TrEMBL record:
Protein name, entry field: Rieske (2Fe-2S) protein
Pfam families: Rieske
Domain Rieske residue range list: 5-114
Taxonomic source organism: Halomarina rubra
PROSITE patterns in the record: RIESKE
Top-level taxon in the UniProt lineage: Archaea
Keywords (A to Z) from UniProt: 2Fe-2S, Iron, Iron-sulfur, Metal-binding
Molecular-function GO term, any one: metal ion binding
Amino acid sequence: MDEDRRIAAVSEVPTDGTLLFTLRDGFDREEAILVRLGGESGDDAIHAWKNYCQHWTDVRLDKGSGAAVREGEVLCQRHAATFEKGSGLCTHGPCEGAYLEDVAVTVHDDAVYLTEADYEFDGLGPSGDHDLSSGGRIGF
Ligand code: FES
C-alpha cells in the first residue's frame, strides 16, 4: 500500500467517537471522519464519511475532538440527527432517510488507507479552513 495514503492505525479509530482527517484535491481541502463499528457481532469494519451533516451541510459532525456517538450512531449535535456508522443512513432527525457522503478506505496490516481516487491524504485533524471566531448559524 502507498504509505502516503495511510490515515491511521485501526487501533487509533475509536468505537465510541470518530477520528477526523483531511483530504486534499489540488488546492481544495475537505474533512472526513473515520468510524469503527466494533460491535458485539465482532464486525470491526472501518468506514469513512465526509465531515458534514445532511441537514445543514455547513455543520461539521466532528469539530476536532471526535463526534459524539450514541448507541452506535454518529450524532449531529446541532439538531440531534443520528447516522448509522456502517451505512451513513440518517435514522432520526430532520434529514431522516439521507445518507452521509462516503469516502473509500481500506484496511491493510492493521492500518487504514485512503483509496478514494480523487483525493490525497492531507493529514490527521481539521483542515484549518474553518473560521473559529464565528459561532456559526443560529436557530433552526
Ligand atoms: S445541522 Fe445536523 S441535524 Fe441539523
